[in-house]
Write a structure and sequence with these properties.
heterodimer, A: about 280 residues, Rhopdopsin 7-helix transmembrane proteins, two-stranded antiparallel sheet, elongated, B: about 375 residues, alpha+beta, six-stranded antiparallel beta sheet
Chain lengths: ~280, ~375
């Protein structure tokens, strides 16, 4: 059983890293398809963190035993990385709603929680390593790994607060995007993003609370699937990375005398403005 | 102990007086956000931080309570410094907070809070009548020092960076003096926290009380100081809906202008809007240029519009415009009705009373500022 899970994890690791490298190269080569450089930078940073650095630390800390202190350190870094990874995801998601418009209060909450986590993790008692643990999920599946980590109450509380914040804020953004979406399709995409985003987070929350290894490994598998899905989305549908709520109502071309040369009205809603009037104003 | 009690009483009294004064003279300070920020700074600095620090050192006898109060004092101080930075940002730019700096500040704040909350991070010992606090975690000392230097550096950098854009050079110099002055107690406190030399704590307290008195003085005598220091208005124009210029004032020269300097085409454009605005759901309220904002405000009932050319549209200007229009309507409603109802010749000299209203509502934006103009209106 242990070998099977290990093989699955290694396969996942190879898939996630390969996909990430390919996606990053594609993003850099086709950066013009994504509108703005900042977006490409964010996507690259997100894929690099989630698809390369995070899985490496995750796997090293859980599946290879070096020494207690090194494995704990690796796991602590993994915890900080998941915070950073989710932060980047949130920025990208907020940018999908409205470009370059971060909300200052959530930014402050996020940064304080990140600071709290880093500070708490510097304490030696924040995370304990257990080799050959007795904790198992209350199902027939036996222990899947020989390494497990237990959090102290303070760290557990901060991690849970952070994840609660992430889920609540993502849901809030999703509702806003869904209400103001360009069309029904983009509205549905926002719901899909929420779903894809939340499930691995929920699995990690369960791991932090109960320390069930099956949940932790499932989290990793889901992250792999997420990255593969995101990569496919980025490569095949770059136009969907444009702002989901941004609408264009009309395009008008004027001659320098103010005469309307061409006008096109998009179908979101009927326009009341007489474009001839605006020509004079613009000129 | 008596000196400590006197200092605590002074700082709390000052804070209460300042908060009460601001809440009763709200209209002097532009927007609510400035009042809220200054009140919070007084609350965290003079009511919470300084009294808690003093109480925890030489007035509270129970060790655990003293330790918790000392930790709380550090936390209140960190929050108050963040509020000072936010206030400086609003006073200078009235803009959104910088994302990167907000991130760094909040990250450091969270980091310091978590280290403070860890057991055995601070050791408390009684020496004579006072408690001495030793920070056992070197990371915490480094972080507090970095935090303080970050705040001082950012405060002075923000003032210097925008120094040439200040509306009034005197207020700019005053802000620079304030920023430099407040850097001293911040440094005194850093030295006290790291070395536990009590002289620096008391000196810090005294400097803070003097600082609070200075701020109170500016609140009482120079409320313009708190109205976005880099915000400028260039022109103020009132149009009738037919496109006729009713009144125009140039803030740069400080003179009324009979002819608008604007190109005729803009006038025609505005005329088109004014002719049509009663049939439209949305109105043109703002034209954004590279370094100018053209702000429009309409009165559909009396059929006129205001055009304000500024370097930045903000809540303070919008509020002043609304107040101006309300008073302008009160003073000129009969004339405006006559113009709208009967297509008669318009005597624009009837609207010269707008100048007094500009002095009343846009005083901080006038070139010759302050009491001089107010007294001469």
């Amino acid at each position: 059983m242990y070998d099977t899970i290990l093989i699955i994890m290694v396969v996942c690791y190879i898939s996630i890293v390969t996909t990430s490298v390919i996606t990053i190269i594609y993003l850099i080569k086709h950066n013009k398809d994504y509108g703005m450089k900042i977006k490409v930078l964010l996507f690259v940073a997100h894929i690099f963190t989630t698809g390369i650095i995070y899985p490496t630390f995750f796997l090293c800390s859980l599946k290879f035993y070096f020494s207690n202190s090194i494995n704990i350190l690796l796991w602590k870094i993994t915890n900080v990385l998941i915070f950073i990874m989710l932060g980047l995801s949130l920025i990208i998601y907020v940018f999908l709603k409205e470009i370059r418009k971060l909300h200052i209060i959530p930014l402050i909450v996020y940064s304080i929680l990140l600071g709290l986590l880093i500070g708490t993790l510097t304490s030696t008692s924040s995370v304990q390593i257990v080799i050959n643990p007795s904790i198992t999920a209350p199902v027939i599946i036996s222990d899947l790994s020989t390494i497990n980590f237990l959090y102290d109450l303070l760290t557990k509380t901060i991690v849970l607060l952070f994840f609660a914040f992430i889920v609540v804020y993502t849901s809030y953004i999703t509702i806003i995007v869904y209400i103001h979406a360009r069309n029904k399709k983009t509205g549905n995409i926002s719901l899909l993003i929420l779903l894809v985003f939340s499930i691995p987070v929920i699995f990690f929350i369960l791991y932090v609370i109960f320390s069930f290894q099956i949940v932790r490994d499932l989290h990793f598998i889901l992250i792999t699937l997420n990255i593969i899905g995101i990569a496919q989305f980025l490569i095949l549908k770059p136009e969907m990375t444009l702002s989901l709520t941004n609408k264009v109502y009309a395009i008008s071309i004027y001659h320098k005398s103010g005469i309307l040369l061409y006008s096109y009205e998009f179908k979101y809603e009927s326009m009341q403005t007489d474009t001839e009037i605006w020509g004079n104003i613009l000129i | 102990m008596i000196v400590s009690l006197i200092l605590i009483t002074c700082s709390i009294t000052l804070a209460i007086f300042a908060i009460l004064y601001m809440s009763t003279h709200r209209k002097n300070f532009g927007t609510q956000i400035i009042i809220i920020l200054i009140s919070l700074i007084y609350l965290f600095q003079d009511v919470l931080f300084l009294p808690f620090l003093t109480l925890s050192v030489d007035l509270v006898s129970v060790e655990d309570v003293a330790l918790q109060m000392w930790k709380s004092a550090i936390l209140f101080r960190l929050i108050s410094l963040g509020l000072v930075l936010t206030l400086a940002n609003f006073m200078i730019l009235y803009s959104r907070l910088n994302y990167y700096l907000t991130f760094i500040y909040s990250l450091l704040l969270g980091f310091i809070i978590s280290l403070l909350s860890l057991p055995n991070s601070i050791e408390i010992t009684r020496v004579g009548n006072v408690y001495i606090y030793t920070i056992l975690n070197p990371v915490l000392i480094v972080l507090i020092t970095v935090f303080d230097l970050f705040i001082i550096g950012l405060l002075i950098f923000t003032v210097l960076k925008n120094f040439s854009s200040f509306r009034n050079p005197f207020l700019g110099q005053l802000l620079l003096i304030f920023a430099s002055y407040f850097s001293i107690p911040i440094l005194m406190n850093t030295i006290y926290i790291t070395t536990q030399i009590l002289f620096f704590k008391d000196f810090n307290y005294l400097l803070n009380i003097f600082g609070s008195i200075f701020i109170l003085y500016t609140l009482l005598r120079m409320p313009d100081f708190y109205v976005v220091l880099t915000n400028k208005i260039y022109d103020f124009i009132i149009f009738q809906k037919s496109g006729i210029l009713l009144y125009s004032y140039n803030f740069e020269t400080g003179k009324e202008t009979d002819e608008s300097f604007l190109k005729g085409s803009i006038l025609i454009g505005i005329n088109h809007i004014l002719t049509n605005f009663t049939y439209k759901k949305d109105q043109l309220n703002l034209i954004k240029m590279k370094d100018r904002d053209l702000l429009f405000e309409y009165d559909t009932y009396y059929g006129y519009a205001l055009l304000i050319i500024t370097n930045q549209k903000n809540m303070i200007i919008q509020k002043a415009v609304k107040q101006f229009m309300r008073k302008f309507n009160d003073l000129n409603k009969e004339k405006l009705k006559e113009i709208n109802n009967f297509s008669q010749l318009i005597d624009v000299s009837a609207f010269k009373n707008a100048k007094d209203l500009i002095y009343e509502y846009f005083l901080p934006y006038l070139k010759k500022q302050g009491a001089f103009i107010k007294d001469n209106v």
